[in-house]
Write a structure and sequence with these properties.
5 strands, Rossmann fold, 7 helices
């Protein structure tokens, strides 16, 4: 069974809009290739808007204000947070405490998606496929 689709980590999504030079060649190709589904998690929407609101992403006005337009331009699908995702994110024995990362990892695991990230913390998560 091949790749079902790709889930972009929050920073990967932001870099795909603003700082493409930070993306690896593999990540850029996946984002540009329409042959496999691309997903953005509801967790990323929440993370972006929450951090924008409190000033941690103050320079990302475009990404915050045009979030849904960007999803459409990328051809990305929304990945809502289901009860299974939330349950698994809270239950999994993983030392990493960041709730956004835990949700993304749980979604990648449950939906069998490859997580596109350069965040090394995901290498310690049991049972997800990473791409960078």
């Amino acid at each position: 069974m091949g790749v079902v689709g790709y889930l972009l980590d929050t920073h990967t999504f932001l870099w795909s809009v603003r700082e493409c030079g930070k993306l690896s060649n593999k990540a850029r190709k996946v984002i540009e290739d329409a042959s496999k589904p691309l997903y953005i998690s509801s967790a990323s929407a929440y993370e972006i808007m929450n951090k924008y609101r409190i000033g941690k992403l103050s320079g990302f006005v475009y990404e915050a204000e045009y979030f849904f337009d960007i999803l459409h331009t990328l051809g990305a699908n929304e990945l809502p947070i289901s009860m299974k995702h939330a349950y698994f994110a809270g239950k999994i024995d993983w030392a990493h405490r960041d709730p956004f990362d835990r949700l993304l990892a749980a979604q990648a695991h449950i939906e069998k998606l490859t997580l596109v990230t350069n965040d090394l913390v995901f290498q310690t998560f049991p049972s997800i496929t990473l791409l960078w």
